[in-house]
Amino acid sequence: MKILITPRMDRCIGCHSCSLACARLLHHRLSWDTAGIRIHSSGGLTTGFTAVHCVACDPPPCAAACPTGALVPRKDGGVVVKKKLCNRCGSCAPACPVEAIFIDQEGEPFVCLHCGLCVPFCPHDCLELAEVNSLRLSSSSNSTESAS
To answer: Distance between CA atoms of 53 and 98, rounded to whole angstroms?
Structure first.
C-alpha cells in the first residue's frame, strides 16, 4: 500500500496546485475547505512551506474518536472516509495529532486519502506516493545506522 509523503518541500513555491487538484479531482469542488492537503508558509516567503496532510497513523486516533464509524482505518495506516455515516460532529479533527483533518463550513471532514491525485500537479516534484513497507525498512535501517 502507498502513502503520500513530502520529501522535497524545500522546492515548494506555495502555489497550492496540489490542494486545488485534490479538491477538484477527488471531491469535485473547487474550495480550499475541501482539500486533503494544505500548504502553509513556514513563516514567510523566504523560509519555505510545509504541507499539512494525513501522515497515516497506525492506528489512527481520528478513527477511534469517530462515534459513527465514518472514519475506517486503512491497512498500514490512515483512514477511509465513509461520508454517509458521518454525522458532522467534528470529533475527528481535534483527535488528529498533526491537525490534518479539515472541517468545511457544513461540518464535513476532509482528510488525505493517499490517492496520489495531487502528485502530478506539483510543478516542482515535492510530493510522491511511497510504499509503506519500503518506508518502514528505510527508517529502521536509518535508526540502526545511527545507533552504531
So the answer is: 8
